[in-house]
Design brief:
Shape: globular
Order of helices and strands: EHEHEHEHEHEHHHEEHH
Helix content: 40-55%
Strand content: 5-15%
Number of strands: 8
Radius of gyration: 21 Å
Distance between the termini: 23 Å
Amino acid sequence: MSALAGRVAIVTGGARGIGAAISTMLVERGASVVVADMGCAIDGRDGDPSVARGFSETLGDRAVPYVEDMADPASAAEAVALARERFGGIDILVNNAAILRDAFVFRGSTADWDAVIRNNLSGAYYLIAAATPVMRDQAKAGRGGGERYEWGRIVNIVSSAAYIGNYGQASYASAKGGLTGLMRIAALDMARTGVTCNAVAPFARSRVTETIVPANDEQAAYKERALRVPTAPVAGLVGYLCSSAASDVTGQIFGVRGREVFLFSQPRPAARIVAEPGGWDANALAAAVDSELRSAFAPLETDLEAFNTEPLV
């Protein structure tokens, strides 16, 4: 269990649920971890520093708490500085922290939208922006001892809500979709350095699944199944992505639900129509869409319905 020995990680939202499972896995495999968690409620309010401090103590000397707001660029930079000062570098970022302030688009507040985007998306960007210059310097200095820097890893914890959707989750789904775009750009920008970046959509018991208010019997069944799925398999997949075995795996979206691991497709043209010279008139375009594209339309369903099958746990 020393596959990640010498690595230094920051895990946001790392003291509870999926984040705690990831932090524990990293320490068990030899890494040192900055557990960045404000201890707030699921809506981002009422922070409690004792959450991260108490959890970090259970992990031993290779874990240290960080309790400031990671949605502040200064805090992200400070967390990176703490990792370097305490453990000698920064190799792994896991952007897991998320809050929820659900509302239908016709009822939501702009303040709640801003809070969710700031915490779930901007905070991840701030951490990546603070850590990647250090990772590039470490690569040039030969950190890890290999011919190529193979310790650098970024994992964004996303959600199928971003790809399929769910009622009342405009801010949450938008932030998680943004994390996917951020993942792709970070993977491209850091490719020459050897730092990989991937996304993981977890299906497991968490504070997010606990807050689901079913709109119908099908969603109630989904929630009941989701609450039976453990968090450890999510941590296991993150551990794989942080290992040497995944040194050439980057820019991908994975899902994990118990014993199942999914690879998600990423948007590419699914069908194509071409106008005659002179372009489309309204009737011709409508007819072409109906005959050539409509069969490839994505169904309008929620992610709770799309993944409402019995999990393998």
